[in-house]
Amino acid sequence: MIQIITEMFSYPFMLRAVIVGVLVSLCAALLGTSLVLKRYSMIGDGLSHVGFAALAVAYVTNLAPLTVAIPICVFSAFLLLRMNENSKIKGDAATALMCSGALAVGVMTVSVTTGMNTDVCNYMFGSILAMSPADVKISVILSAAVIILFVAFYPRIFAVTFDENFAKATGTNSNLYNMIIALLTAVTVVLGMRMMGTLLISSLIVFPSLSSMRICKKFKTVIISSVFVSIVCFLTGIFISYEYSTPTGASIVIINIIVFLVFSLIERGREHVQNEK
């Protein structure tokens, strides 16, 4: 086991993948609890498809992928929030429209220009080989910004997550903090697309939080547990991916599913013991 891990980290691309993956897992876990409790969990799925469309445009125009994807995803996140607040099309319907529309734009753009090349497929399905040193630098800087902003605004994020009306009554600008959550989510989704792929990145946001909610009841403990679960699942998944040559994103998601099922069984066991008392 130790020999395999040592060998794995001897490859620069694996080291880059682990650094970025741990940071993205941390960011996704921090945001996941708020998104799940606010019923915004599908926003990650919608933004990932928007990101794919943005990346397709970036490749066609020979622009830097992250330079194009991040602002477009941030704008789309704000648009989804505005639609939820003011439009007749709300919630899952708005996300589904954006999700399918963006994916169609991305596929059409690629099909009529360059075709489905390796770079585009890497973003769709994820690849640990796709991380360049420049990607690592950008990911470290943006991940640090996400973590710092989340910690700095944690009390307000907590308030708007649990009771937005009460937060407004106490003078909190709930719209501003909803926008901050959306902004941080958009950045996290774009950073994780290289690793997980656009089709699976939302699972990195949802699964750790849902698993932790099975056994933890306080907001802070759920977040701490989510971070631990997210990082452990990522490291286990990437190890399996390296050892057995399985897709990275799919391996990480399957480990998350197993953890979710185990935590659900623990919750059932607790409830059974309490009922017998």
Automatic annotation (TrEMBL):
**Mind telling me which residue stretches traverse the membrane in this protein?**
13-37, 49-81, 93-115, 136-157, 177-210, 222-242, 248-266
Organism equals Aminipila luticellarii
Record has Transmembrane as a keyword: yes
Please tell me where this protein is predominantly located: membrane
Mind telling me which Pfam families this protein's record contains? ABC-3
- InterPro entries, from UniProt? ABC_BtuC-like, ABC_TroCD
Compartments, as annotated in UniProt: Cell membrane; Membrane
- Membrane protein topology class: Multi-pass membrane protein
Regarding protein family, the annotation reads: Belongs to the ABC-3 integral membrane protein family.
A biological process term (GO) from this entry: transmembrane transport
GO CC annotation, single: ATP-binding cassette (ABC) transporter complex
Instruction: Please state what the protein is called.
Output: Metal ABC transporter permease
The alphabetical list of record keywords is: Membrane, Transmembrane, Transmembrane helix, Transport
Glycoprotein among keywords: no
